[in-house]
Amino acid sequence: MTLLTLDNLSKRYGSAVALSDVSLSIAPGSRTAVVGPSGSGKTTLLRLIAGFETPDAGRIVLKGEVLAQGGMAVPAHKRGIGIVAQDGALFPHLSIADNIAFGFERGTPEREARILELIDMVELDRGMLTRRPHQLSGGQQQRVALARALGRRPRLMLLDEPFSALDTGLRENMRKAVSRVLEAAGIATILVTHDQAEALSFADQVAVLRAGKLVQAGTPRQLYLHPRDREAALFLGDAVLLPAIARGNVADCALGRVAIAAPARQGKVEIMIRPEQIRVVRDDAAPSPAGRVVEVEFSGATSTLAVALDGVALPPIVIKTSSVALPSAGDRVRLDIAGEVHIFGEG
User: Fold this and answer.
1) In the chain, which ranges are continuous DSSP H helix?
2) From the CB of residue 146, how many other CB atoms can be counted at a distance below 10 Å?
3) What is the pLDDT of residues 282-312, one digit of tens each?
4) Dist. CA 118–CA 110, nearest whole Å
5) Number of domains in the chain
6) How many angstroms separate the CA atoms of 162 and 135, rounded?
């Protein structure tokens, strides 16, 4: 079952292509994160869905209703879509109660009861209702903005980098809180973010945009472990990329023979190994393939090692690893690979 369907959406601004033939489906009650580098088209996509822009081509359908097609577009205020922006966009001259109620339809019955219901839903103290936005923290303001958006009982919620201005710890707490609220309300959500870790932890589905095109969409696990190409692999997290020779279900590379994910392949390929698959073991007598640590960067719980491999004309491999039993520069080490590695294609 599909709540929102985007069919071959395209948008240009003059000669600049913002989006090109983007198609994506959103399931009811699901959480989708849209990620991509700056200029990839994330914000344009959100604005098209919200109704702030009209696509040059393609179609937007929400719950069976066509919102945009062939130059026709339903106005933003009639789409039944809520949106929470990066800065919350609260009205500074209104109380928190009035900010929340601003999202209500005219003549909403039991206004006060509805305000109390919403502030409870976003897990804020009712005593805050008489305050003004400047008297709240950034995280609290974002919760009020969410309550206001929920006040109109939207069919879909759009989150435009709502956590980016918050401190790291608060950002994680807010993300979890917002996720709980929207899940409890049963509202499908699209989050636009530049934070890959945030996207992977928040969403049921992740969509990667690049240069206005949809590169890949799927579950966070699928995209992280099986990215479509090397650019997607590096965008979604740290990765070691190596040339290899595939021989069925194994491949020979600078780290030795490794297991590869199905389907079986033959010939030259490029493999991807996530850092958490690599175990660095100090071993002065390690036979090849092995290497020597040429640089160590301590960063607390995790550290970064650069390892020059024996007899290989490749730059040192950079690995993020646990700081427990961390080797020193100059130590000889063995690199053990856990699990299967991912293959992109022919090298």
Assistant:
1) 42-50, 96-101, 111-121, 138-150, 168-185, 196-202, 220-225, 230-236
2) 26
3) 888 877 778 999 999 999 998 999 999 988 8
4) 12
5) 2
6) 19
